[in-house]
Amino acid sequence: MDEAKLTQILDRQAITDGLHWYTRWVDLNRVDKQVEIFTEDGRIKFGGDQWIEGRANIEALITPLVQVYSATHHYITNVEITFDSAEEARSQCYLHAWHRPAAGGDDFVLYAQYHDRWVKTADGWRIKERRLKTAGTVGRPEGMAGLEPLGRAK
Predict the structure, then answer these.
(1) Residue ranges of the alpha helices (H) in the chain?
(2) Residue 149 belongs to a domain
(3) 146: pLDDT confidence band, cut at 50, 70 and 90?
(4) CB half-sphere exposure, 104, CA atoms < 13 A
(5) pLDDT 10s digits, 52-108
(6) C-alpha 55: how far from its chain's center?
(7) Does 145 map to a domain?
(8) How far is 23 from 43, CA to CA, in rounded Å?
(9) pLDDT at 143 over 60
(10) What CATH number has the domain bearing residue 78?
(11) How many domains does the chain have?
């Protein structure tokens, strides 16, 4: 096997590990560790038209979102990775996320996909851009901002 193919196999595993690493820190309520998967100038969009840019701003966005839950459980599956170059890649994966509200009430379940752009840095593969696209929810809290629909062919 040539070295380029071997490197791509290792890179593919590193990106997959990064996806799992992110969700593990979400479930441990460690936003400080969770955001390390992003580049310093990374950006994220959970819905609507607004991008949140910069790792510090991503942390500020996520912290209050996860604090309203006493427990969460995230699953990442169906990982697909496409390399644009040796230093850039795109991924999409399915997300199944269960949330138990700290204040009581109905559990919230999210069925969605992450659509990510990755760059290879001195610290390894990091997310440059993340979009959450939603297929559906169960027990969605009132007042929750609009989520970007996944969309389906007609």
Answers:
(1) 3-27, 31-34, 55-67
(2) no
(3) low
(4) 0
(5) 999 999 999 999 988 999 999 999 999 999 999 999 999 999 999 999 999 999 999
(6) 13
(7) no
(8) 17
(9) no
(10) 3.10.450.50
(11) 1
